[in-house]
Amino acid sequence: MSTLLSTVSRTVRNARQLVLVGATCAGVGIGGCQSAEKSEAKAEASPSWIAKIDRYHWVTATPAPPPPADNLILVGDRLEPDTKAVEAKGAAELAGAHVLYRDGKFSEAETVFHRVAENTKNAPPIAEEARYYEAECLRRQARYPKASDTYARMLNDFPSGAYREQAVQHMFEIANYWLDDTRKEMEEYKEKREGKRWVIWPDILHFEKTKPFLDEEGRALEKLEQVRYNDMTGPLADKALFLAGSVKFFRQEYKEADFLYSQLVEMHPNSPYVEQALELSIISKLLSTGGAAYDGRKVAEARRLVDTALRNYPEFAHKKGDFLNRQLFSITMQQAEKDFEVAEFYRRTGHPCSAYFCYEIVRRRYPGTKYFDLAIKHMEELRDKVEKSEAGQPSTTMPADKRPGESLPPAASPNLLPGPSGPSGPPAPLPPGIVNPR
User: Fold this and answer.
1) pLDDT per residue over 99-152, tens digit each?
2) Phi and psi, residue 366, nearest 5°
3) 89 in helix, strand or coil?
4) What is the radius of gyration, based on Cα positions, of the chain?
5) If you average pLDDT over residues 46-59, what whole number do you get?
6) In this predicted structure, what is the pLDDT of residue 260?
7) How far is Cα 164 from Cα 152, in angstroms, rounded to an integer?
8) Distance CA 95, CA 65 (A)
9) Residue 376 structural domain
10) Angstrom distance (rounded) from CA 382 to CA 170
11) Percentage of the chain exceeding pLDDT 70
12) Could you report the per-residue pLDDT of 99-111, keeping only the tens digit for each?
């Protein structure tokens, strides 16, 4: 809006100058044109009707106050006037905006800072500082949605600038403030499960200026993602990952929660949230598979994550031994069911040799489970068909003492942690909701 007003004011001033020069030339002839500049200067010096109408700066932009006269810097052991700050283009206007900012006139300072930041002829350090303080003026006025967008714009334009850490910190604080409503909703769901509440009213619209009008939670997740991308190894990256993953876990979006928790475990192994992220990541991987009939790679990743917890976090393994036992048992049963269903598929489609081979895999990999007994039973049923199939190929017929399943060494037991009750039961109950990292 300020750019539009500046353009209109320049247009009005140029038109006024043109009319003044034309009238002067028409009245005094060609020779009078030489005094046009003096007439125009005189008209500018005297108060005009446009200046009287535009006393509240409806057309022209709000002028910045003059910079302070005693702007000093420390050079060695003495203070000297800072001449470089005034010599750079736009520096005087920026210094005047800082005067308004220090006086608490944040609305007027925001206008001037925005004008300086939008001027592409200014030096990059001046534009960056103006953009940052524009966002600061918005934050001081509690206009958090627009302030966070201005911080994000500054980080996009100046990703390695001098104000990056401060902008990231303020963006995280705003996003964490917006998640207070999500924490409140978690408490309400907890009360509903306990029978203390019947209905949970959705909080969709927000009319206060501190919050977005729509999709407050989505805007908070967006800002957390920008915090993580702009400071991936900083002190706030693990907190942003944990908060975003907790929101996704609460909304039962387990694939996204698994990705965020896995990133926290992989990139921030010394974070104070890594143990809870390990626990929630294992649960998310198991809940995001869809069952044994779907892709089993997530289940394999969950097994590797359990192994990581056992090897790298002994205190967590000692404290959560029963939980890890139950997860390993769930993983083993899901993998056994998947391999058994593959063998069943070959048996139904008339491939006895392939089915026999897959049953043998189940027998070797998963002793002590119900699929171990079912595999042996089906292997006995298919033995005659396999022998008849091999009878037509005398070069590959196996002697009786070398038949699969008859002379195999005993299989090892599953690699589970010792426990008093053994691996049994469903996955561990869900831990509490978001932990406020403030």
Assistant:
1) 999 999 999 999 999 999 999 899 999 999 999 999 999 999 999 999 999 999
2) -125, 60
3) coil
4) 36
5) 49
6) 95
7) 10
8) 8
9) 232-438
10) 68
11) 69
12) 999 999 999 999 9
Tokens representing 241 are 């990952």
Q: Of 41, 56, 71, which one is at a domain's C-terminal end?
A: 56
Question: The tokens of 278 are what?
Answer: 């390990």
Say if CB 407 and CB 401 are below 8 A apart. yes
Element containing residue 278 per DSSP (H, E): helix 274-287
The type of residue at 222 is E
Say which amino acid occupies 179: L
Q: Is residue 351 part of a domain?
A: yes
Residue with tokens 């446009």: 50
Q: Is residue 418 assigned to a domain? A: yes
Query: Per residue, what are the HEC states of 141-187?
Result: CCCHHHHHHHHHHHHHHCCCCCCHHHHHHHHHHHHHHHCHHHHHHHH
Kindly state whether residue 155 falls inside one of the protein's structural domains: no
Structure tokens at 25: 């030339």
82/74 Cα distance (integer angstroms): 9
Minimal CA–CA distance to 109: which of 143, 65, 149, 145?
65
Q: Which of 17, 36, 56 is the last residue of a domain?
A: 56
d(CA 289, CA 282): 12
CATH number at residue 410: 1.25.40.10
Bridge-based pairing of strands 78-81 and 72-75 is: antiparallel
Each residue's pLDDT tens digit, 198-228: 888 888 888 989 999 999 999 999 999 999 9
Q: How far apart are CA 182 and CA 51, in angstroms?
A: 52
3-state secondary structure of 126: helix
Helix count (H) and strand count (E) of the chain?
A: 19, 2
d(CA 427, CA 327): 6
Work out whether the CA dihedral 280, 285, 288, 293 comes out positive or negative. negative
For the stretch 172-207, pLDDT in tens is: 999 999 999 999 999 988 888 888 888 888 888 889
DSSP string across 367-429: TTSHHHHHHHHHHHHHHHHHHHHHHT-GGGPPPGGG-TTTSPPPPPPP-----SS-S-SSSPP
Q: CA 141 from chain center: how many Å?
A: 25
Number of domains in the chain: 2
Name residue, tokens 């001449």. 83
Partners of 78 in the beta sheet? Answer: 75
Is 75 contained in some domain? no
The pTM for the full model equals 0.68
